[in-house]
Specification:
Largest sheet: 9 strands, mixed
Bound molecules: 6-O-phosphono-beta-D-glucopyranose
Distance between the termini: 35 Å
Shape: globular
Strand order of the largest sheet: 14-13-12-11-7-10-9-8-15
Order of helices and strands: EHEHHEHEHEHEHEHHEEEEEEEHHEH
Oligomer: single chain
Structural class: alpha/beta
Number of strands: 15
Radius of gyration: 24 Å
Helix content: 25-40%
Number of helices: 12
Length: 487
């Protein structure tokens, strides 16, 4: 077992109450994540109580959990580790009600000693989330508890405000952990390290040197079993108002006074307060051909499966710098990049045909894929006579550190942080409400959806949206292969 540094795990034994324990997210991420945290020694004293609508017993839940681990865990599941983990599982069908849940938690706590903490994880749709919150209240499980909520946190400003009000009737804000798993990704946190641990880039991290920014998250995935959810949600609510805006905040925020929850939330919320309302004319909504034929989808659906947009942060650092955001389903490639385009220098000293500026501006690129990479591209002289310029790049890959095995998956990292009561990588009610507020013009007046072919980059009008710039993706030059020798 790897040695876990002190202070990384929670101080107290944990009882996790997992609502939606047989659902898709629980199977793909939460059960494998809890299994890894438990077997790697991060949470040596932890019991997990599954709750769901399924009328199964503990043996049935164990079977579902084991299958989920076999299918989705990125680490090997050994029988010995599984036995230890399975021993700490329990199950309460939702229909058994609050008293049964209270009894299961009491039994789990009795087995763990006096000083235990509760982590309620709501991996359920919004309507079910509120009834789960009420059930927790009725069962008397609010004390010594933290609650992790999954998006969507409302669907517009009014519903978000109402949701927060209802939540606050049972849990106080400091007990609530609104998860945005993009912030749990190692490379997202590396944006903060890169920006604030180095003197090199922060002085030029502003409108005087940066021309525009792109946050581009195309996905090749379709909808799988999620079309009913997605039909009500769409790409903007599923990805932009959540993940892409959170990443934008890390990229754009002022240096916080400390790397602690309060100062970081303050700076992120300042970015959101400075955002200009999203204008429908700055948005391209797309829908892939064939979406309307998917099961559970309205044959006349206007739900977008793709969105590209321009937004602005109207403060001293960023006024006038466009931020282009794009994401969609069934696109040509799966990528998660932030690309920062620097202003170009005067080029008149170079002879015509030298190639200066011909391949776009200098770029700093963050690849937020799990095996993250960074690149800084610049012009350099092509070897030989005369002055011909080529686009070159400095590249770093997380592989280079040799520590890729230490990376925690986003959900693992965030579950651990919630158990420790650390809000740094979670979103706040204030931030979310502000994001719905800036979204209001778009939500009230969405432009019509335009068709795009599956396997493409979105509708044609995305090019007008970024003109005179161009989308960075697809990349003109491939990343260097970190495994190739000689580089
Ligand atoms: C989820 C969205 O929050 O994030 C999905 O609901 C999306 O639609 C997913 O596919 C992308 O996350 P990741 O970590 O797989 O890039």
């Amino acid at each position: 077992m790897a040695k876990i540094p002190p202070g990384v795990g929670p101080r107290f034994p944990q009882v996790v109450v997992l609502f939606g324990a047989t659902g898709d997210l629980a199977k793909r991420k939460l059960l494998p994540g809890l299994y890894h945290l438990a077997t790697a020694g991060f949470i040596p004293q932890c019991r997990v109580i599954g709750v769901s609508l399924d009328d199964i017993d503990l043996a049935g839940f164990r079977q579902i959990a084991r299958r989920a681990l076999d299918q989705f865990s990125t680490r090997k599941v050994t029988d010995a580790d599984w036995d230890a983990f399975a021993h700490n599982l329990d199950y309460v069908p939702l229909a058994a009600g609050a008293p049964a849940l209270a009894a299961a938690v009491a039994a789990a706590e009795a087995s763990l000693g006096d000083e235990t903490r509760r982590l309620h994880y709501l991996s359920v749709p919004p309507s079910a989330a509120l009834s789960a919150v009420r059930m927790l209240g009725e069962a008397g499980l609010v004390e010594r508890a933290r609650i992790v909520m999954e998006k969507p946190f409302g669907t517009d400003l009014a519903s978000a405000v109402q949701l927060n009000r209802q939540l606050h009737e049972v849990f106080s804000e400091d007990q609530i952990f609104r998860i945005d798993h993009f912030l749990g990704k190692e490379p997202a946190q590396n944006i903060l390290a890169f920006r604030f641990a180095n003197g090199l880039f922060e002085p030029i991290w502003n409108r005087n040197f940066i021309d525009h920014v792109q946050i581009d998250v195309p996905e090749t995935l379709g909808l799988g079993q999620r079309s009913a959810f997605y039909e009500q949600t769409g790409a903007y609510r599923d990805m932009v108002v959540t993940h892409l805006f959170q990443i934008l905040a890390f990229m754009a925020m002022e240096p916080p006074t400390a790397l602690e929850p309060q100062p970081i939330s303050e700076e992120k919320n300042k970015v959101f307060r400075s955002m200009l309302p999203v204008q429908p004319a700055d948005v391209v909504r797309g829908q892939y051909g064939g979406y309307r034929q998917e099961p559970g989808v309205d044959p006349e659906s206007e739900t977008e499966t793709f969105i590209a947009m321009k937004c602005f942060i109207d403060n001293w650092r960023w006024a006038g710098v466009p931020f282009f955001l794009r994401t969609g389903k069934k696109m040509a490639e799966g990528q998660r990049i932030i690309s920062i385009a620097f202003r170009e220098p005067p080029k008149s000293m170079f002879p015509p045909g030298s190639g200066v500026g011909a391949q776009g501006p200098d770029h700093l690129t963050f690849d937020l894929a799990d095996a993250s990479k960074m690149s800084l591209s610049f012009y350099g002289k092509r070897p030989g006579p005369g002055m011909r310029l080529d686009k070159l790049s400095l590249q770093f890959a997380m592989h280079d550190t040799g520590l890729i095995g230490d990376v925690l998956e986003a959900y693992e990292r965030l579950i651990l942080d919630a158990m420790r009561g650390d809000h740094t990588l979670f979103t706040t009610a204030e931030g979310i409400e502000r994001l719905w507020q800036v979204s209001t013009p778009l939500l009230e007046n969405p432009p019509p959806v335009r068709l795009y072919s599956p396997g493409g980059w979105g509708p044609k009008s995305i090019h007008q949206l970024v003109a005179p710039h161009a989308w960075r993706l697809p990349f003109e030059r491939a990343w260097r292969d970190p495994n190739a020798s000689g580089g």
